[in-house]
Design goal:
The structure is a homodimer of 224-residue chains.
Chain A (H helix, E strand, L loop, with lengths): L6 H12 L4 H9 L10 H13 L3 E5 L3 H6 L9 E5 L1 H12 L8 H9 L6 H29 L5 H31 L38
Antiparallel strand pairs in A: 1-2
The structure holds a DNA duplex (28 and 28 nucleotides).
Protein name (chains A, B): Helix-turn-helix transcriptional regulator
Pfam families (chains A, B): PadR
Keywords (chains A, B): Coiled coil
Chain lengths: 224, 224
DNA sequence: AATTTCATGTAATTCGTTACATGATTCC
DNA sequence: GGAATCATGTAACGAATTACATGAAATT
């Protein structure tokens, strides 16, 4: 059943929720718009799309040039394919979105989830943010402990590296605190449609001014 | 010839330079002491050690219990193996250390290198730090460009994520600036042994107070 | 006319993990 | 004597990359 890392699948579903796209465009958005994700290669993306289709979560539609393409009998015609989310796919994505298992606190899972926060309920967002925070706090605990145990045996550069690493984590914790804070304050007394409905329903807490998650590159648009 | 990611190989060589160790201990140091590295599993580490031995960079030595182990003729005896760097291995490591190809600016490669800065010459350190900095600046350029292109189409959370990501990178650039600064100031007029000699020869520029590189976990000492 | 960017795919390979299998030693 | 931790390995699998292969459309 190939439960891929899940992240690519998740992101593809999430992006296609906005609008149908073909693979090429999808890949670009994976690199750029979502700030976070590493650039998946075509070798990864296209096969993944095929399995999503096989699962009934997407359907393939003819890309541009819809007229003459079908007419020309030649089999060699390479088709442009636009992928569209099916209702089942939409449902599946919503399941994934609200399903906050322990994986959801890991770096990339968290970032992927966060990128689609606009489509979730505040309750879920809080769970994810708080889960992420405890995950990081655990990490800090271990780093501190290990540092305490080994400090004297390490040279200055190694020490410096560890310190910078810890500070990065501490910084993210502060960021999370602000986010949690503003989620809490955000729209607390707000009733109305609590469901994460179709297109941007304006649902969004008040966000602070800050940034992200230090994923490697996203760059290299040109998949050399 | 299996050029693994290179990082594990590099780190193993570097750690064994300090002292012979067996695989188990090596793995722990990979997780903790070097702050940065993800926890390599035994399934990765042991085979890697074997190929390093095959390359003549390490030799295996009987671990503890050297007396009775050899005496007992039983083949079933599982040996404890201590790995020691050979002169060829040492040479190879030094080659890797000073060989600053474009890979060296990537996240993990950079972190790995930095962790062994204590064993390099200032000249090399400068090259690596500056290379890393331009790498990050390129990245920032692309992020800024992409943000400018797509800003209005993105929701608040995605935007927030991108902002945090950019700030993380900017922060690392500032860190690098400080490091470069202090390398430059460090021991500029210093003559003497310029070679990165055997054990800690006290060679170290003046470092600022800061930290590192946001690698995921290192935790999970207990390889579940 | 040539180059870049759009567009889709496959095969081989690399890097790494998990789960399994085994056993010794140390601490309580 | 039982648990934790030390210690070493292998086989099956997973996720993703690279290099290859192909070709259409848009731009210069």
């Amino acid at each position: 059943m190939s439960r891929r890392s899940g992240i690519l699948e998740f992101a593809v579903l999430g992006l296609l929720r906005e609008a149908p796209m073909h693979g090429y465009e999808l890949r670009k958005r994976l690199n750029t718009s979502l700030g976070i994700f590493r650039a998946f290669s075509y070798g990864t993306l296209y096969p993944c799309l095929k399995t999503l289709v096989a699962n009934g979560w997407l359907i393939e539609e003819p890309g541009s040039a819809p007229e003459e393409a079908v007419a020309s009998s030649l089999a060699g015609r390479r088709a442009k394919i636009v992928y569209r989310l099916t209702p089942e796919g939409k449902e599946h994505f919503e399941e994934l979105l609200s399903h906050t298992g322990p994986d959801a606190w890991e770096d990339e899972h968290f970032a992927a989830r966060f990128a689609f926060f606009g489509q979730t309920e505040r309750e879920v967002r809080m769970r994810v943010l708080e889960g992420r925070r405890s995950r990081l706090e655990e990490r800090l605990e271990k780093m501190r402990a290990s540092l305490a145990r080994t400090r004297e045996r390490l040279d200055d550069y190694t020490l410096e590296l560890q310190r910078h690493g810890m500070e990065s984590v501490e910084r993210e914790v502060r960021w999370l605190n602000e986010l949690i804070e503003s989620e809490r304050a955000g729209r607390d007394q707000r009733p109305g449609t609590d469901a994460p409905h179709d297109n941007d329903s304006g649902e969004t807490g008040g966000l602070p001014r800050h940034g992200g998650s230090t994923r490697p590159d996203p760059s290299d648009d040109t998949a050399k």
